[in-house]
Automatic annotation (TrEMBL):
Name this polypeptide is given: RING-type E3 ubiquitin transferase
CDD domains xref list: RING-HC_RNF123, SPRY_RNF123
InterPro entries listed in its UniProt record: B30.2/SPRY, B30.2/SPRY_sf, ConA-like_dom_sf, RKP_N, RNF123/RKP/RSPRY1, SPRY_dom, SPRY_RNF123, TPR_RNF123/RKP
B30.2/SPRY domain ranges (all copies): 68-272
The protein's Enzyme Commission number: 2.3.2.27
Keywords: Metal-binding, Transferase, Ubl conjugation pathway, Zinc, Zinc-finger
């Protein structure tokens, strides 16, 4: 061997020449990248460098390419590929596919699909090849393939996460309306909703699944086992020892779905996302897949060489290259074209292979070229796209690549170690870059699945319990006993996850901007935004009814609605941040070039009322405030108003002295900054951090400078150029580029659609909040509440462990502590996730601003009856929900003292003026407003907002009294109690705050005095309701006593009814203190009814069970004995009596009805006497703070007077002997205490006027014959006639 050959052989590394075997780890250029680079390094031994380079590109053995005598071109490359490449890259022979039988159902002998003959119920294929949905209550189906030997699998991609039974079944498994896969012998299934495996009976197995999960269903007929995988992770062997089957009688893939459930079945038509070693797909991949994959790898190696050649800095010094050989840049064109010609020829040769290869090999190839993390290789990707687009069939291929990227967004999980470039980020980044080419976005738009794929891009996979454990391995919360290092670990974790969420949301916005900018190539020409508007309308149309308890089939996944809401919220709040988005987005040219968020502009506001009045398909089924749309159009038609625009000045609905707008000196909370010490307020396990960092698991971005200027009243155009935004920063970091070849339609063009207005986006955003965000916030607030409760229980258990010495008790306490600790950890993880994904600061700013905008819109529209009744109900529901979400957010958005005062005082105006608005047809909506008032008035800061609100002080007192009816009495009673609490007998020690609203107490008193009819009606309903609640309470507690046990449901019922009774008694106590003349002056009917009610309550208290059983019955879990006991109902009774006695001794009511006489006239003197003694002897020390002896002495004096009167009263003597004498016909046969001095018309039945008056308060029919009473005439009036 010559020396030159020896030298060359000696320099070979791994079978390659020395010039090709220099492996560069490109960590310096790509952080975190594991990909190596090969550089052609031509030295004195590299006279064959061109041939050796081709060998490296095509992965051929050394010197398999002879010396080339002709210049390199496409024909030479294809010749090498056909001769040498195919020789060394022949497809391996297929083995192991025996034991499989596929029945041809018309799709081909190798295609696996649903056997239509096996379907029971109603399973519809909503997208080919196999995205299926159940339209029946329970549907089942088998595939057209069975297996009896070997190891096989298929994947199920979950579009919904409800009840689905996935697995394997034989032909002997019967499918019915109630039985499906896993409900018979030789039938095996897994259900992640119920976390169970099924084979006739259910057993706990696996993990709960979520939307976007990929379930691998594997059957090992060699080992007689069936197992399941979730996202490539084994859930363990589910079934062992399954029965052996013969050829043609094997196990079929089978599924059972409940109504509305959707999943995509992949038997092998697409590459598996998580292939399991040793298991084969039921449907073999196309023959061309192997060759196509090898050719793409050739392109990848070629691009690697090119990247190294153009790199400015590499890890090894470039050596000189002999001039007679072609550089890599010149080599790239012929080699790449030759490879692509062979690649597309392979696709054309096998029908149907483009989809499999496009979604698999091509998508993976482009992801590898582009890079999954920033900075991305835009240059190489652009070169590949340009190259592919030169070939026929590339459009079809790119359509499948886009489909593969959309599919990846649905199923990509967040992985902590990959943050912030985790989850769907890489797929979105690649899609956004590709779709900046007009040619490719047209390809996507022309596809039949455009909207389906768009939803896929907007999907985001949420974690289950096990996923959260992986994402947040260490958990910490304030006051926890965990290792101190967990706190720092938690901070780092939440920061990383927040960054990942931010990246994904940014790419969602980029994608939506591209769609908004896109002008479809159709005639007549369309405006920018027309495609996006159509998508929004169709999305809302398909999601009608998504807010029902059982949503209809076909609704979008929740993450799509949330993502789209987030995108629109950012556009409207933070500004679009893309200069190329036409002024059409800015409301027909207003503020052109301004980047001020729509929600923060202030000044004059406008809204096209046609959004509510038009009969659009996606709106007709939506309930309106006044009823259904069809009903309103029939009875309240609107004429020629669809094009009208309503205008108002921001803040016009607020009191002038307290008005806070974007134009006022004091800015709303959404446009102000507050340095809140969240570490002292928040329950979350994160401390406040330095400026610009993340706090509480939420990246709190500094308020951009343009937001501070959003409230300016001057010209903003001069400030726009220097305003930063997240997207501006993204352009420099990620090479953000506008759509290429963007066409601009002149304003005077003949267009078929109007401008996509920001008000229209706002309308859609409110709907999306109602459908998508509200359920998520409900879950988040549940976990926050449960976390607080669990922490309290854990701390209480720790305290008991420290105090207990008994080993047996310690064992039980430690077991309980372990359970509580696990619950706390789970809640902390869930709360942190919701805080990261839902409660970021910019979202809170946008939500606050949208609340301001919507409530002012509703108040303005409420002055126009014809339009107000057409407002969709979801506007009101979303407003109230969003308000309370912000109020309860943790960490708090702003201090509670200014939450309402600086921007949302109009919310108070709206709820107090509309909670009994008859134009709102839904009683549930009116109750929602009442509940809001009930919640807010219990806080001092919010109660002050009511006191300073003109509408509240003028309208709320009377409105509350009139709203106390059969439906709304509970929230009204709670509101009245909270307005008047703290001043009753014993209230300072019974869990009631000493604070109360003196102003509203005065207003309520004035309302009762000035409108006697209203007050008497309210008092009558109060008497009836308190009597009913005490009766229900007595019956429930006696039922438990008779059964000698406290049943949880009955105990909860007793506790609730007892609380309600106490509240009503406190309200009644307030009435006797503030309006005693209603009882002491004039007719004694109210005083008599009040006395009867007091005696009725006392009789239940003294005749009920022993104190221990009573306390057990009324005290709910977590309530202390100090706060929940008999004193809660006894104290207001004492207060009522003392109030009447005090008023009776005064000058105003001194000559009125005698309280003692009325008590003495009761027909149960023993009950009255025992009840008063019970009150005097009760242990008030545990329920009363301060000097209460003086008040009890006053009660004792009254008791002595009462005993004296009852003993010496002739009425008592008459009552005692009444049973021994004949009944006097002139006496009232109802009360037997008064003379019958009135009769009914027309039936002429007689009774006393007192009984008749009381009866007619609640019923307009005769006591005796049930005839309708037309008139009541007193006897003395008839005699006078």
């Amino acid at each position: 061997m010559c020396s030159s050959q020896m030298s060359e052989e000696g320099l070979r590394i791994g079978g390659l020449s020395s010039g090709l075997a220099v492996l560069l780890n490109n960590d310096e250029k790509k952080e975190g990248s594991q990909k190596g680079r090969l550089v052609s390094c031509c030295d004195d031994f590299g006279y064959q460098s061109l041939e050796r380079t081709l060998e490296h590109v095509f992965d051929l053995p050394y010197k398999s390419v002879g010396q080339l005598s002709t210049p390199i071109d496409t024909s030479v490359v294809r010749s090498i590929l056909k001769n040498e490449f195919l020789k060394f890259n022949a497809k391996p022979s297929i083995t192991g596919r025996s034991g499989l039988c596929i029945v041809d159902n018309g799709w081909g002998p190798t295609v696996v699909g649903i056997d239509e003959a096996s379907v029971c119920g109603d399973i519809r294929i909503i997208k080919h090849p196999l995205l299926v949905e159940s339209l029946a209550m329970f549907s089942s189906a088998r595939a057209n393939a069975c297996v009896w030997e070997g190891k096989w699998m298929y994947e199920v991609i979950l579009e919904t996460a409800g009840i689905q039974q996935l697995g394997w079944a034989t032909l002997s498994c019967p499918f019915t309306d109630h039985k499906g896969v896993g409900d018979a012998d030789d039938s095996y299934a897994f259900d992640g909703r119920r976390v169970s495996k099924w084979n006739k009976d259910a057993e706990t197995y696996g993990q709960s699944w979520v939307v976007g999960d990929i379930i691998g269903c594997c059957i090992d007929l060699d080992g007689d086992e069936i197992s399941f995988y979730r996202n490539g992770v084994s859930l363990g062997v589910a079934f062992e020892g399954i029965r052996k089957m013969g050829p043609g009688l094997g196990y079929y893939p089978a599924i059972s779905l409940s109504q509305g459930e959707r999943c995509e079945l992949n038997f092998g038509a697409h590459p598996f996302k998580y292939p399991i070693d040793g298991f084969l797909p039921l449907q073999a991949p196309p023959f061309a897949n192997y060759l196509a994959t090898q050719l793409l790898q050739c392109l990848s190696r070629l691009l690697d060489l090119q990247c190294m050649e153009r790199a400015e800095h590499i890890s090894v010094e470039k050596l000189r290259r002999l001039k007679r050989f072609m550089p890599i840049e010149e080599l790239f064109d012929p080699v790449s074209h030759g490879v692509c010609e062979e690649f597309f020829a392979a696709l054309d040769a096998e029908a149907g292979s483009a989809e499999y290869i496009g979604r698999g090999s091509v998508t993976s190839f482009m992801m590898d070229i582009f890079g999954t993390q920033a900075p991305h290789d835009f240059t190489s990707l652009d070169r590949v796209i340009d190259l592919f687009l030169e070939f026929r069939g590339s459009h079809r291929l790119f359509e499948h690549v886009i489909s593969g990227l959309s599919y990846g967004c649905k199923t990509a999980p967040l992985i902590l170690t990959e943050c912030p470039y985790s989850g769907s980020y890489a797929y979105l980044a690649l899609a956004c870059h590709m779709l900046r080419r007009e040619e490719l976005i047209v390809v996507w738009w022309n596809s039949a699945d455009f909207e389906f794929l768009f939803e896929g891009f907007l999907s985001r996979k949420n974690p289950n319990k096990q996923d959260l454990q992986c994402m947040m391995p260490s958990v910490w919360w304030p006051g926890s006993c965990e290792d101190v290092s967990y706190e720092n670990g938690m901070m780092l974790t939440t920061t990383a996850l927040s960054g990942a969420i931010n990246k994904i949301e940014e790419k969602h916005r980029d994608l939506c901007r591209l769609i908004i900018q896109f002008i479809p190539p159709i005639l007549p020409p369309q405006l920018p935004g027309s495609v996006f508007r159509t998508f929004l309308q169709n999305l809302l149309l398909k999601n009608r009814g998504a807010d029902r308890n059982v949503p209809p089939p076909g609704v979008s996944t929740n993450s799509v609605l949330v993502s789209l809401y987030t995108v629109i919220l950012h556009f409207l709040s933070e500004g679009s941040a893309v200069g190329d988005i036409c002024s059409w987005i800015k409301g027909g040219g207003n503020n052109v070039g301004s980047n001020v968020g729509f929600l923060h502009r202030g000044g004059q506001q406008t809204f096209p009322i046609g959004l509510f009045l038009k009969n659009d398909p996606h709106r007709t089924d939506i309930s309106r405030l006044g009823g259904t749309f069809n009903h309103l159009m029939k009875f309240h038609p609107v004429n020629n108003q669809e094009e009208d625009v309503i205008r108002w000045e921001e803040g016009c609905t607020d009191d002038e002295q307290d008005r806070v707008t974007h134009s006022s000196r004091q800015k709303p909370c959404c446009c102000s900054s507050y340095d809140v010490d969240y570490s002292g307020i928040s329950k979350v396990p994160i401390r406040s951090m330095t400026k610009g960092s993340c706090s509480h698991g939420t990246p709190i971005a500094e308020r951009p400078t343009h937001v501070a200027a959003e409230c300016s009243t001057g010209n903003l155009n001069d400030e726009i150029a220097d305003k930063p935004s997240s997207s501006d920063q993204a352009e420099s970091e990620f090479e953000y580029r506008p759509v290429q070849h963007l066409r601009v339609v002149p304003r005077d063009s003949n267009v078929t659609s109007a401008t996509l207005r920001e008000e229209e986006l706002l309308d859609t955003m409110v709907m999306l909040y109602h459908l998508g965000l509200a359920p998520n916030f409900k879950k988040a607030l549940y976990f926050m509440s449960h976390q607080s409760q669990s922490i309290s229980l854990l701390e209480e258990t720790d305290k008991q462990i420290r105090e207990r010495a008994c080993s047996k008790q310690l064992k039980h306490l430690k077991e309980a502590r372990s359970i509580y600790r696990d619950e706390v950890i789970d809640c902390v993880r869930h709360c942190t996730w919701y805080r990261i994904s839902l409660f970021s600061r910019w979202k809170q700013r946008g939500m606050y601003a949208s609340c301001m905008w919507v409530v002012q819109l509703l108040l303005v529209l409420s002055k126009h009856d014809s339009v107000f009744i057409y407002v969709p109900e979801f506007y009101l529901e979303a407003l109230v929900d969003c308000f309370h979400v912000l109020r309860k957010s943790d960490p708090p958005f702003v201090p509670s003292a200014i939450f309402i005062k600086q921007g949302l005082s109009s919310f108070i105006t709206f709820i107090v003026t509309h909670f009994n608005d008859p134009r709102i047809s839904s009683a549930d909506l009116r109750d929602l407003l009442l509940q809001s008032i009930s919640v807010l008035v219990q806080y001092r800061e919010f109660l002050a907002a009511f006191e300073s609100n003109e509408a509240a002080t003028q309208r709320m007192p009377k409105a509350l009294l009139s709203a106390f009816d059969n439906r709304s009495w509970i929230p009204v009673a709670n509101i009245l109690l909270r307005l008047c609490k703290g001043s009753g007998f014993g209230s300072s020690k019974l869990g009631e705050s000493s604070s109360s609203s003196v102003l509203f107490q005065k207003l309520l008193r004035e309302a009762c005095i000035h409108d006697e009819e209203l007050f008497l009606a309210f008092l009558n309903r109060l008497f009836n309701t308190l009597s009913w609640t005490m009766t229900e309470f007595s019956v429930s507690i006696r039922e438990m006593q008779e059964n000698y046990q406290v049943i949880e449901f009955q105990q909860r019922k007793c506790s609730v009814i007892f609380d309600l009774s106490c509240n009503l008694a406190r309200v009644l106590e307030f009435c006797t203190r503030e309006i005693p003349q209603a009882f002491l002056l004039g007719s004694d009917m109210n005083l008599r009814r009040l006395t009867e009610l007091i005696v009725f309550i006392l009789s239940h208290m003294i005749s009920t069970v022993d104190a221990e059983f009573f306390d057990l019955s009324v005290r709910r879990h977590g309530h202390s004995l100090e706060k929940v006991n008999r004193a809660m109902i006894l104290a207001p009774i004492v207060g009522i009596i003392l109030n009447l006695l005090d008023a009776g001794s005064g000058t105003e009511c001194g000559e009125g009805n005698d309280v003692a006489s009325v008590f003495a006239s009761m027909d149960c003197p023993d009950t009255v006497h025992c009840g008063l003694q019970y009150l005097l002897e009760y242990n008030w020390a545990g329920s009363f703070r301060g000097d209460y002896q003086e008040k009890l002495m006053q009660l004792e004096k009254f008791s002595n007077v009462l005993i004296s009167r009852m003993t010496n009263s002739p009425e008592v003597e008459n009552w005692e002997c009444r049973s021994d004498v004949d009944t006097d016909d002139s006496m009232c046969c109802i009360c037997y205490a008064c003379e019958a001095d009135a009769y009914f018309v027309p039936c002429s039945h007689t009774s006393c006027s007192g009984c008749i008056t009381r009866h007619l308060l609640n019923c307009q029919r005769c006591f005796f014959c049930n005839a309708t009473v037309m008139e009541v005439i007193k006897m003395d009036e008839r005699a006078a006639l």
